[in-house]
Amino acid sequence: MENKNFDVIITGGSYSGLSAGMSLGRSLRNVLIIDNGKPCNRQTPHSHNFVTHDGKTPSEIAQLAKKDVEKYNTVQFYNGTVVKTQKTTEGFEIETSSGEKFNAKRLILASGVKDIMPDIPGFAECWGISVIHCPYCHGYEVKNEVTGILSNGDMAYEFSKLIFNLTKNLTLFTNGKAALTEEQLEKLKQNKIILNEDEIESIQHKNGSIQKIIFKNGKEIPLQALYAKIPFEQNLNVSDDLGCELTEQGFIKVDMMQKTTVPGVFACGDNVTMMRSVANAVAQGNFAGAVVNKELSDEEF
Ligand SMILES: Cc1cc2nc3c(=O)[nH]c(=O)nc-3n(C[C@H](O)[C@H](O)[C@H](O)COP(=O)(O)OP(=O)(O)OC[C@H]3O[C@@H](n4cnc5c(N)ncnc54)[C@H](O)[C@@H]3O)c2cc1C
């Protein structure tokens, strides 16, 4: 790629990055979107809860989005992995795994997060297919089915309330001793949510469709769907490289304008919020692009 200098570099070219790219492309900004093709929802067969695209595959939605952004010829795309982001006197320098370096006046971090799979054989294979991260995305499709929740503590309790709205055939698997208060346990009991504290050995499945949970004590429980809250990490080490502050939960800290704690660096999408959805990522990207354009316009006027 000949041009190495851009108004804006966007790390991540999925829903939030493409959406930011559209705001900026339509504002005649020279933009580079760098992406390595690994969105977090890539294993899920159908994406839901995004109006106009409900039920399409995740890649279909992303491809349509990319086609829209490609219409704006000031936006360029680079297939590759960002390995380093750093501040320079004039802005920011981004380095890719093949050693290429690009510069920009502003940086938008749209690189999402990486979900960390628990050490349970079968779990990763079912992730996004029958092991579900979010009731709004996939709950309707498994309503009233024999369902489990793999979680513990306050999170498990809050999740139970939400999932109970979608199915009454519900078991909470805490995979070890339950860390819930007496009051919470009593509420679960009142609503006939079964508590199971047995330690999980593995998940038996067929092509990602869960069949049963197998426990270390030899017991087995058949299931049709399992909700799970799992840990994550940022895809880019922006706290060390750029000095962006993270929240207690590990999200990049942003203000109402999608600005991180480092001037000139913006962030949008899954890397800043627990409300993980395509619609939210698109909305935040759209706004981040507009705010960046406004900053540049103010500077240039
Ligand atoms: C299993 C699963 C199923 C889901 N189902 C739904 C659903 O049905 N409906 C819904 O609304 N939401 C769903 N979600 C949530 C939704 O997928 C996310 O909210 C959305 O993808 C966030 O968009 P994003 O652009 O912020 O991040 P992502 O879509 O995760 O994209 C991040 C992009 O950054 C790129 N990237 C990361 N690191 C680098 C790097 N170092 N260099 C270059 N590129 C990099 C990745 O390749 C990727 O393309 C689901 C999530 C999961 C995990």
TrEMBL record:
<feature type="domain" description="FAD/NAD(P)-binding">
    <location>
        <begin position="6"/>
        <end position="285"/>
    </location>
</feature>
<protein>
    <submittedName>
        <fullName>Thioredoxin reductase</fullName>
    </submittedName>
</protein>
<dbReference type="InterPro" id="IPR036188">
    <property type="entry name" value="FAD/NAD-bd_sf"/>
</dbReference>
<dbReference type="GO" id="GO:0016491">
    <property type="term" value="F:oxidoreductase activity"/>
</dbReference>
<keyword id="KW-0560">Oxidoreductase</keyword>
<keyword id="KW-0285">Flavoprotein</keyword>
<dbReference type="Pfam" id="PF07992">
    <property type="entry name" value="Pyr_redox_2"/>
</dbReference>
<dbReference type="InterPro" id="IPR023753">
    <property type="entry name" value="FAD/NAD-binding_dom"/>
</dbReference>
<dbReference type="InterPro" id="IPR050097">
    <property type="entry name" value="Ferredoxin-NADP_redctase_2"/>
</dbReference>
